[in-house]
C-alpha cells in the first residue's frame, strides 16, 4: 500500500469518527454530548443509549457491509457495474426475508434473532450463484449485457413474489413490508445490532485478509492459479462473504440501493485498484455515506422521517447512468 492510500485511509477514519459523534447528537431531538453527562439528564441519556446510538452504529455497519460487498463483487466479476441491487442479489434476499415476515413459521426465540439473516443469506447466495455461473459463461460486453438482463429479470421475479406476499399479509405485516422495502434504520435494538455485528464483522475481516489474493485474481483465473492461488476456493469464499454481507444488511435495514455501486467505484478512482487499500477504503466510505444519508433522512423533515433508501437511490441512479454512458463511449 502506497503512502497516498495510507494517508487517505487514516483521514477517512478520523473523519468518520468525527461524523459519528456529530450524527449521534442530531435528529428530531437535539442531544448535545456535554448535556448527556450532566446530573439530572437521565432521560436524555436513555434516549441516546437506547435509540440514537444503536441507530448510528447500525448505519455504520450496514453502509460498510453494502460497500464492501460491492467491492468484492466488482473484483470477483472484474466488472465496475457489479452491484448487489442491480444484479438481483438484494432482490433475492428481500424475497426470502418477506417469506419469513409473512408466512406462519414458528421457531425458538434464539433462532428468531438470526432467522431473518439466515433467510436473506439463502436468497442472496442462490442468486449470486446464478450470476456467477453466467459470468463464467460470457465475457466482455455480451457478458455484461447478459448479467444486467438477468439482474432485471431476477429483480422483477422477486418483486412479484414480494408483491404477492404483501397481498396476502395482514395490516401489521404490510406496514412492516412497506417500510422495510424502502430501506429504514429506525427499527433497531441492541439485540438486533449485536446479531448483525456478529455476522458483518467476521465476514469483513475475512475479505480484508484475502485482499492480496483478490488483486491476483484480477489477472485472470489461469494467471492467478500459476501464482499459487487456489482460485475455486477463493471464489467460493468471496461469494459466501459477499452474500453474508448483503443478507445481513437487507435483513436489518431493508433495501438500500446503490451504496455497493457508488462507493467502491469512487474509492477505486481515488485509491487505485489495489484491494489492500480498496477494501478498507470502501468499508470506511460506505459507513460514512450511509451515516450521512441516515442523518439527513431523520433531520431534514423532522419530526417525520424519510426512508434512507430513497436518498441513496437519488444519489446512485445518476451515478449509474453516468457509468453506463461512460462504458458505451469506451466501446468502439
TrEMBL record:
Gene3D superfamilies: ABC transporter involved in vitamin B12 uptake, BtuC. Pfam families: FecCD (PF01032). The keyword Chaperone does not apply. The chain crosses the membrane at residues 56-77, 86-107, 113-135, 147-168, 188-208, 237-265, 277-296, 308-325. This is Iron ABC transporter. The lineage of its organism: Bacteria, Pseudomonadati, Pseudomonadota, Gammaproteobacteria, Enterobacterales. InterPro entries: ABC_BtuC-like, ABC_transptr_permease_BtuC. Its main location: membrane. PANTHER family: ABC TRANSPORTER PERMEASE PROTEIN MJ0876-RELATED, FERRIC ENTEROBACTIN TRANSPORT SYSTEM PERMEASE PROTEIN. It is found in: Cell membrane. Keywords: Cell membrane, Membrane, Transmembrane, Transmembrane helix, Transport. The keyword Ribonucleoprotein does not apply. It is a multi-pass membrane protein. Belongs to the binding-protein-dependent transport system permease family. FecCD subfamily. It comes from the Bacteria. It comes from Kosakonia pseudosacchari.
Amino acid at each position: 500500500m502506497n503512502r497516498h492510500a495510507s494517508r487517505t485511509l487514516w483521514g477517512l477514519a478520523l473523519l468518520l469518527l468525527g461524523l459519528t459523534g456529530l450524527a449521534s447528537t442530531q435528529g428530531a431531538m437535539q442531544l448535545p454530548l456535554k448535556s448527556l453527562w450532566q446530573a439530572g439528564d437521565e432521560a436524555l441519556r436513555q434516549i441516546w443509549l437506547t435509540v440514537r446510538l444503536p441507530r448510528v452504529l447500525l448505519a455504520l455497519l450496514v453502509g460498510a457491509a453494502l460497500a464492501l460487498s460491492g467491492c468484492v463483487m466488482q473484483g470477483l466479476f472484474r466488472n465496475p457495474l457489479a452491484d448487489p441491487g442491480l444484479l438481483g442479489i438484494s432482490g433475492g434476499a428481500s424475497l426470502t426475508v418477506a417469506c419469513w415476515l409473512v408466512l406462519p413459521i414458528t421457531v425458538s426465540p434464539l433462532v428468531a434473532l438470526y432467522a431473518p439473516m439466515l433467510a436473506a443469506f439463502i436468497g442472496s447466495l442462490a442468486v449470486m450463484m446464478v450470476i456467477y455461473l453466467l459470468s463464467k459463461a460470457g465475457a466482455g460486453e455480451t457478458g455484461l449485457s447478459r448479467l444486467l438482463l438477468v439482474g432485471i429479470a431476477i429483480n422483477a421475479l422477486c418483486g412479484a413474489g414480494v408483491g404477492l406476499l404483501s397481498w396476502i399479509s395482514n395490516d401489521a405485516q404490510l406496514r412492516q413490508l412497506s417500510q422495510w422495502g424502502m430501506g429504514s434504520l429506525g427499527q433497531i435494538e441492541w439485540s438486533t445490532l449485536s446479531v448483525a455485528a456478529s455476522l458483518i464483522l467476521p465476514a469483513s475481516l475475512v475479505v480484508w485478509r484475502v485482499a492480496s489474493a483478490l488483486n491476483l485474481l484480477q489477472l485472470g483465473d489461469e494467471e492467478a492459479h500459476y501464482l499459487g492461488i487456489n482460485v475455486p476456493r477463493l471464489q467460493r469464499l468471496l461469494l459466501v462473504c459477499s452474500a453474508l454481507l448483503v443478507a445481513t444488511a437487507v435483513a436489518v435495514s431493508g433495501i438500500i440501493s446503490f451504496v455497493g455501486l457508488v462507493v467502491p467505484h469512487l474509492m477505486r478512482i481515488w485509491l487505485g485498484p489495489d484491494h489492500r487499500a480498496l477494501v478498507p477504503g470502501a468499508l470506511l466510505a460506505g459507513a460514512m455515506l450511509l451515516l450521512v444519508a441516515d442523518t439527513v433522512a431523520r433531520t431534514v423533515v423532522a419530526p417525520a422521517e424519510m426512508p434512507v433508501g430513497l436518498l441513496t437511490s437519488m444519489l446512485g441512479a445518476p451515478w449509474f447512468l453516468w457509468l453506463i454512458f461512460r462504458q458505451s463511449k469506451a466501446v468502439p
